[in-house]
Amino acid sequence: MVIEREQDVTAAALAAMQRTSDPRLREIMVSLVKHLHGFVRDVRLTEAEFRDACAILIELGKLSSDTHNEAVLMAGSLGVSSLVCLLNNGNQGNAETDQSLLGPFWRLNSPRVENGGSIVRSETPGPALFVNGRVVDKAGHPIAGAEVDVWHASPVGFYENQDPSQVDMNLRGKFKTDREGRFSFRSVMMAGYPIPTDGLVGRLLRVQNRHPYRPAHLHALIFKPGFKVLISQVYDPADPHIDSDAQFGVTKTLLGNFVRHDESHPAERDVSPPWYSLDHVYRMEPGEAVLPRPPIK
Ligand SMILES: [Fe+2]
After folding, report:
1. How many angstroms separate the alpha carbon of residue 219 from the centre of ligand 1?
2. Residue 27 has pLDDT above 80, yes or no
3. I need a surface site. Which of 34, 151, 229, 263 has the fewest CB within 10 A?
4. How far apart are CA 242 and CA 60, in angstroms?
5. So what's the pLDDT on residue 40?
6. SS3 200
7. What is the whole-number distance in angstroms between the Cα of residue 214 and the centre of ligand 1?
8. Does position 1 have pLDDT exceeding 90, yes or no?
9. What is the three-class DSSP state of 71?
10. pLDDT tens, 209-237?
11. What are the start-end ranges of the E strands in the chain?
12. Ion ligand 1 residues within 5 Å by Cβ
């Protein structure tokens, strides 16, 4: 097709997209070109802005490595990760779901820990946290033998892979639910943290006068054949950034029952107040148990 007017290029590109052999990929590419061309027209993208856009995409890749994923961070900062999650879970966005963002810090092989054990592997000052979790199906029946991977930031807001003062796999562990679907562990109370702001995402937040904080949260990835892998985060409602998460991940269902205790712990002598507890029920939806690709190694 020889293009005569600006409108013609959209028709030509759409016709090319229509030749995609895989039907789903065809649907995606046709819609992408439709919206991309619509967006370019909508903002009347200048040539300089277009060159900037290409440079930004290249930089997203260059800033990503085995230990950092700027693309995931950007998707989160634009609300896209949260939208994808909400559309694909909870009866396709029509019901509450325990699913949440995977985030950029899940690692595949966290060490196995017995229920009741600790995931504090190197000295990590901060208030103790005792987590009692329960994994159930949609009807509320316990799911026994589920593998529960947990990970969280330290009391000063760093994951172990970001912090040379923590040993490898600190504040990470993998548990198996018992017959009642329960798992439990001891850790330290995590803090909210700023997402990395030394790259493109940081530039975006600065030009929008946005703070970079995520409210304190506990990540979990729960695996059991017959159920969709549950990727969840439980948030601390007392966190000052609970209603302004830089990654748009906080939903009502995911507000956790974090309780601060100012009395001595009834059983653990080495725990001094304040200490925290979290009791939480994780609901899995039926589906295929497919693990996501780890964002870092
Ligand atoms: Fe996180």
Report:
1. 6
2. yes
3. 263
4. 27
5. 98
6. helix
7. 8
8. no
9. helix
10. 999 999 999 999 999 999 999 999 999 99
11. 128-136, 147-152, 172-176, 182-188, 193-194, 213-214, 217-223, 230-235, 257-261, 275-283
12. 103
Q: Which residues contact 141 (CB under 8 A, 6 or more apart)?
A: 181
Confidence class for position 175, pLDDT limits 50, 70, 90: very high
Alpha helices in 44-110 (DSSP H): 47-62, 70-77, 80-88, 90-93
32-60 per-position pLDDT tens digit: 999 999 999 999 999 999 999 999 999 99
What's the 239 CA to ligand 1 centre distance in angstroms? Answer: 14
Q: How far is the CA of 116 from the centre of ligand 1 (A)?
A: 22
Distance of CA 137 to the CA centre of its chain: 21
Separation of alpha carbons 176 and 146, rounded Å: 5
Percent above pLDDT 90 for the chain:
88
Strand pairing report for 275-283 and 128-136 = parallel
How many angstroms is it from 104 CA to the middle of ligand 1? Answer: 8
